[in-house]
Hints:
Strand 10 and strand 11 form a beta hairpin. It is globular and about 70 Å long. The protein has helices at residues 13-24, 40-46, 54-67, 77-93, 100-119, 162-166, 177-187, 208-217, 220-225; strands at 4-8, 28-35, 71-75, 124-126, 131-135, 141-145, 168-169, 231-233, 239-242, 266-271, 276-280, 286-297, 307-312, 320-328, 331-341, 348-353, 356-366. The protein is an alpha/beta fold. The strands form 4 sheets. The protein has a 6-stranded antiparallel β-barrel with strand order 12-15-14-13-16-17. Strands 3-2-1-4-7 form a 5-stranded parallel β-sheet, sandwiched between helices. A 4-stranded mixed β-sheet has the order 9-8-11-10, with no helix packed on it. Mean pLDDT is 91; it is low at 42-49.
Amino acid sequence: xxxxxxxxxxxxxxSSVAAFLLKEQGYDVIGVTMQIWQDEKQxxxxxxxxxxxxxxxxxxxxxxxxLEIPYYVMNFKxxxxxxxxxxxxxxxxxxxxxxxxIACNRYVKWESLLKxxxxxxxxxxxxxxxxxxxxxxNGRYSLRMSKTSAKDQTYALYNLTQFQLSHTLMPVxxxxxxxxxxxxxxxxxxVANKPDSQEICFIPDKDYAGFIEREAAGKQExxxxxxxxxxFVTKEGDIIGPHKGIIHYTIGQRKGLNLAMGHPVFVTExxxxxxxxxxxxxEDVFADKLVCDNLNFxxxxxxxxxxxxxxxxxxxxxxEWCLIEQTGEDRxxxxxxxxxxxxxxxxxxxxxxxxxxxxxxxxxxxx
Length: 367
């Protein structure tokens, strides 16, 4: 009997080819697009971009027809609002810089979609992510970097659970982006040349602060927490001038500060308890240590002693060698061999042991 797999189809070329590859491998493939947009206005915005907007549904439906597989749209509005959008707003209000794609992957694209897929008898879910899943000799499942580092998405998937990994297929990780596009063209898929989505899908205009203000305006509990304008200060505490509110800033930021200092200056710290944004020089943005929590280990069950790994502190970071050590029940301290730029609370740090994801966590602070 064929194993049944639900493929999360975003309407893009990667998930479309993933569906084709799995059908070729003999799976019983069902295509599903996750409906996450929240209102009519958002629908209109997302017709022009985003991974799960209206255009995604039409593109995915056309691909499913071409591949001759059943196709459905599943409603995940509630889960997306709670787990991704509300989380995004809360984190910024508290002076952190969140990664909504990581939250979406863990709690919506996997936790919610996997449960619903298994409820309808599926054995697996699958996505078009550039990553590979392998069962290791120790019995654990881990992510392995994709065939090419030029397109590797393991960073955004580091917090998937063992159960989720054991019920997931990622066929695209064995190919380069060029190979996937070539395959789509040979198959005549209508999305072969569709550009990749770059922005956060629910903020296509990239105005994060504007989005947060709009979201808070309709919710009394959020409105009460919204940070007021405060002061730019030096690390010694001297006031430089007023700022618009901490939701407008992130660690390492240089543009948009509107400070006439005579030379480039950078955000080095955000202090939500006082509403202060600390300004410093370029060298002040570098640190050689961070502390993280919300740990998720992947290739190992837990950290035994100190271990040298390559750590990435943001999606675009090439990684830096460091020594990691468990310093609390849910806390790891990471000491870098070379200082790294803009360690940002709220972002993920992901630890690599060779090609494999050892684990990762959420950055609490840099030191």
